[in-house]
Amino acid sequence: MKKTLLNDGTSINCISRFEAQMLDKHIDGYLDFGIKVNEGDTIIDIGANIGILGTKMSNKFNDIAIHSFEPISFIYEVLEKNSIDSKNEMFKTYPFGISDKNETIEFMYYPNIPALSTSNPELWKTNSEIVKALKGSLKNSPDKWWWSNLIPEFLYPFIVLRLKKNPKKVKCNLKTLAYVIDYYSITKINLLKIDCEGNELKVINGIKKENWDLIDQVVVEVHNIEGRLDYMSNILKNIGFEIKIVKEPSLKETNLFNIFAVK
To answer: Is residue 74 part of a domain?
Structure first.
């Protein structure tokens, strides 16, 4: 298991050092656009990956509960280790994902770029979207990546081929958020974060009407496929959230958007 340093100097376990550093910068943006986290809050982290959000929140607050969900066993092992290292006994991890039904399905795991791992591999059948994301990430990289702008763009497709090399099909368990709320007796969700590579609509559809009363804020990454961005925005508006739709500079050329929703 590798280690790297986050922007705040925290040592964290990881699979890919570069990916962890980029995710760190990405996650910093979750607390913009009216999203607030306070002492005593409860965070639901869907698509937790290696647990950078949970680690950062555990460092920042003395009393914070984090429920982190990661269905892919290779990634979950790192998430679990980071939760232990955080010394936050309320940083809980779960070896399953969240969807619209309780089931076991097949995921595609990319060992060289775990953040792309998904139950919807058709998202990445063509490499063009990943090349756009890579370009944006390198052009808007962490400060320590002094070398990123030195890479010529003609190499990007070759880098993507290397990153996608040797994918693995893995069986993963999924449950609905409604099930989780009931089974684990969760009575408040101050922040619901959803970043699950194309499964975000199913996550939303797996939340019962009465569950929304518990949820104060939502940050969700949306793959804008077949009008999904408008559909999900309207769902949140109808529930009573004020929303802001944001496209990160690193994702400017992709179909990825973030929705920030606050009641």
So the answer is: yes
Phi, psi of 113 (to 5 degrees): -150, 70
Half-sphere exposure (CA, 13 Å, Cβ side) for 78? 23
How many CB atoms are located within 10 Å of the residue 210 CB? Answer: 9
* Secondary element (H or E) of residue 17: helix 17-28
Range of the domain at 233: 28-262
Q: Which residues pair with 74 in a beta bridge?
A: none
Beta strands at 168-176 and 103-109: parallel, antiparallel or unpaired: antiparallel
Q: Number of folded domains in the chain?
A: 1
Entry pTM: 0.94
Report whether 134 contacts 160 (CB < 8 A).
Answer: yes
pLDDT range class, residue 124, cuts 50, 70, 90 = low
> What number is the average pLDDT over the span 100-119?
93
